[in-house]
Design brief:
The protein contains three helices and 16 strands. By secondary structure, the protein is of the alpha+beta class. The chain has two domains: 39 residues; 150 residues, Glucose Permease (Domain IIA), CATH 2.70.70. It has an eight-stranded antiparallel β-sheet, with no helix packed on it. A three-stranded antiparallel β-sheet has the order 3-16-14, with no helix packed on it. It has a three-stranded antiparallel β-sheet with strand order 6-12-10, with no helix packed on it. Helix 1 packs antiparallel against helix 2. The longest helix has 17 residues. The model has no long low-confidence stretch (mean pLDDT 89).
Length: 224
Amino acid sequence: MTDKFQWADEPGHTAFPIARPGYPIVFVCAFVTCIFALLGLSFLAVFSLTATFFVCWFFRDPDRVIPAKEGAVVSPADGKVIIAEAVEDNRYYNGPCKKVSIFMNVFNVHVNRIPYEGTITDIQYFPGKFFNADLDKASKDNEQNAIFMETKDSRKISFVQIAGLIARRIICRVQEGDKLQRGQRFGMICFGSRLDVYLPENTVLEVAVGDKVKAGTSVLGCLH
């Protein structure tokens, strides 16, 4: 039987969509490139043009079709799974749970997506440091933004945007009380970062450490 998919967001109308937070940076880089070119500073113009292309590529925001599989929890981020295990009570989940951590390097798409349908019950921001996001202590010490969700059958899920070594901006566009669908865009973290996902203890994980995942399309596990 063929797997079913759905659109969580309306597909874009451009061949190379760019996330909105990238627009000002792209504009500045392009403007500087034009200035250098008009002044005849060829080397600087080429360097600035290269930087402009990199920024456009970094802020790319491709459309994604979302698996419609019952109970599927999709990845909130593109990247590499660095943790997939059972953990005990912590500040993001009351009681034992399953934790999946995804590390995003500068080459990954950085737009974040909702892992499961439900209602946002709380959002908590924690200022912190900027250790390399693939280190264990990043989950405790780095700047982070935690989003808490309740599913329609009253199960709890939380997912945490964590700044990395060079990331200096966490963007979250959802608010408490929002009802969201699996795979919807909700924010991004600029220039290298990490997403931690906390799921009910009886979740059956379908990923392992080292797996590469994509936001909205890769299934992390299934709720039972």
